Amino acid sequence: MEIQENQHDQASSETESVRSGRVGFSGPLSGQSSGPPSGPLLGGNKKSSKKSARFKNEEYVEITLDVRDDSVSVQNIKGGDLETSILASRLERQRPSSLGSQLSFRLRQVSHELRRITSTSSKRFNKDDRSKSGAARALKGLQFMTKNVGNEGWSEIEKRFDQLSVNGALPKSSFGQCIGMKDSKDFANELFDALARRRGITSDSITRAELREFWEQIADQSFDARLQTFFDMVDKNADGRITEDEVKEIITLSASANKLSKIQERADEYAALIMEELDPDNLGYVELYNLELLLLQAPGPNPSTNLTTNSRILSQLLSQKLVPTKETNPIKRCLRGIEYFIEDNWKRIWVVLLWLAICAGLFTWKFMQYKDRAVFEVMGYCVTAAKGAAETLKFNMAIILFPVCRNTITWLRSRTKLGYVVPFDDNINFHKVVALGIAVGVGVHALAHLTCDFPRLLHATDEEYEPLKKFFGEERPDNYWWFVKGTEGWTGVVMVVLMAIAFILAQPWFRRNRLNLPKGLKRLTGFNAFWYSHHLFVIVYGLFIVHGYYLYLTKKWYKKTTWMYLAVPVILYACERLIRACRSGYKSVRILKVAVYPGNVLALHMSKPQGFKYTSGQYIFVNCSAVSAFQWHPFSITSAPGDEYLSVYIRTLGDWTSQLKTVFSKACQPSNENQSGLLRADMMKGENKPKLPKLLVDGPYGAPAQDYKKYDVVLLVGLGIGATPLISIVKDVLNNIKQYQALEEGLEGESNNGEKGNAKRPFATRRAYFYWVTREQGSFEWFRGVMNEVTENDKDGVIELHNYCTSVYEEGDARSALIAMLQSLHHAKNGVDIVSGTRVKTHFARPNWRNVFKRVAVNHVNQRIGVFYCGAPTLTGELKRLSQDFSRKTTTKFDFHKENF
Fold this sequence. Notes:
It contains 33 helices and 21 strands. By secondary structure, it is of the alpha+beta class.
């Protein structure tokens, strides 16, 4: 290798200065050099010297630099490739203040880089090889600038620089925020150090020009440039080699950036795994080409997700159909919108229209009735409006009880065909709509009386009051107090107050403690406040009957119809509560296992009460007298009907669930290595069984998810703890598929024997797609056993499991690149995913739901898919919209069902 320098004589008054010069650098492209770059760097030598060396049978790179007072420019490059050109251009970009020392440093750095390039040139992948296998996916990886980071362009980065810079320099501590990595400060700091090392920057701050260079490098779309940047982050001593300790550090850093605490705890083990894979000769280090090999040979997508040629064509056609096209004609656009709305909501529409029609009919009937009475002459339309609203109140106070008669709704849903025309899934929503109708009725009735009827009566003349003596007495009322102190008055006022309390505390802001209230007031909100205030309805209904009996203008008992409206609903609801009380009294369960999992989740495994039968997707009410003797809380059943136990998973979000977890945690012990969870208590093992609180259960009750049996194909989507009813479905589908296969084998045997079997297929479902999206890595422990059981027993691929961890940056982001590499290595070797700890590989970030629906539509043409979602309402709109969109524009129909909780 050779450094050539030609210095030209220049006139100088007292000192020698370097005015102009050309520096040539050349090095071999084969072999692996370990020594430092050789060759003199002569500054201010008036004689030109040229040293030359050539290597037999070796290719070399020669770089000629033009050195001037304040700049370095590349004059010529012989040999090398694109990366060599990029490397040389970095010398040209520098503006060293002290040319002699800085140029010497740059040349040594370039020499080292050239030696690294040449040492791996014979080992690295050819460009053509990168179009094969998993290379296409690898080439999309290691993106330092993604849509979630600073991909807005240099102008946005520059604006942040102006905001964050101190005295014209950007501190290292603000670098992450400047480039858009404010949530990954440690990762951004390591990136800063790597970029600074390459440029010989030792300061903890950079100028605008240096930031521009940093940004150009991390925004470079070249795979080689991105790979080198990532390698530099790991190679902290810049010797071109990565040791096991450096691998461990970058694993810890990546795990921290992605909030994967369990990977941080096992960083030693995973670092050894990478070294074992990339350093088979036990050299103690790996080089750049090893990292490239790992990226380009990483396993591709699951073969089950690959599409056949015909499916790809169909997928392209679907993409074309699903491109939004706006109707130019506003009338047609409006009509189409109305058509779609009716198609999607016809069940709700006819129920609401029927309810509105009945309310309007009752209001009109009572309005016209009082218009023909003598009282109308004094009170006018005020009394007709008040009485019309009162009639709708009687009706609404009656029917508001039906949606909360859970046993009745469960029976109607399971045993009748009414589910085809009645939206039982919306029972709570209809309960809220009727409550709104009651609020409107109370408002109209009270305002009409207080602001119109009573003032007119008080100011009526003796002649006008004469016909009303039989209703209000011989002496005319002289003030408001007369009306309030009467039975009709005080019962009405108390009812309005109690209704207002229950209505306000039932709002989501109070029920879920979303308001930032003072500590004293905060105690008066929450689920407990909602639960107890709602039970004021017992007092309200009693007062309502009394209020409806002591009427001013109606004296005959058979015209006092309030009790007639309420008789049947109140008796039905009373029977419901009586059945629940009796049933729960003998359905005391024995606790089999308790586990406390990360994410504040309590798992309870209980014995099945005698005669307890349920369907996957249903829920039960749980009561714990150690927490509250009166409160019952609903939880989805996680076990399958075929299991010998009953299980629920409870996330502590409120006061009652927090107390329940505390009570059971006292009886638990830390789990061992072979057990999941943080704390456990297994009642089936050991002699020293802890004393656990008593539990009562009531149910099961119907829920939207139980309708999965109606579909050949189901798409199950769960967010966080919302996966609980869907896990039960997954287990039940697997159990029933086995049962159906055994049934088919039995029928085939009977057919061979000449016998005709009449056994029926258990249910329709033949394929299930399960998507579980969770934010925390620890959440995967909740159902780790179920996931492994499915992968071990589902040999035919009936159930397709997809886990998503949203704390991990999307695939392709440099912050998750090492996690993805490690995941592929570990799963290929041990069959276990490092993120979830199950046999199911975890995807990163959030799913592309449009692609999910598209893939299901391609795989199941001309079929009806049941989409079941359970989780936070944030995703409801998108899934519902996609279900509607694909149903309208493809031959695959998607029926969307949402679990209410």
